[in-house]
Design a protein that fits this description.
By secondary structure, the chain is mostly helical. The protein has one domain. The chain contains five helices and no strands. The termini are far apart.
């Protein structure tokens, strides 16, 4: 009997790191509250997150945030 073990590839680790950055944002927490973490498993969303520079986007939008 063989077991399939999921190894975190470099791309998956990077995507997970980006999702952790998003988890700190209030608007993203609202989305995951409504939709659950299912959105993180959506392949289209994962591809978009992988191609985007999430850290730069969050830093830029943080400058204009009114608190």
């Amino acid at each position: 009997m063989t077991m399939n073990i999921a190894f975190p590839f470099k791309r998956n680790r990077e995507i997970s790191k980006k999702f952790k950055m998003l988890d700190k944002e209030g608007w993203y927490q609202n989305i995951t509250c409504r939709l659950g973490t299912f959105i993180q498993m959506n392949l289209s969303v994962r591809r978009f997150i992988a191609q985007s520079d999430v850290e730069r986007i969050l830093n830029e939008t943080g400058k204009f945030r009114i608190e």
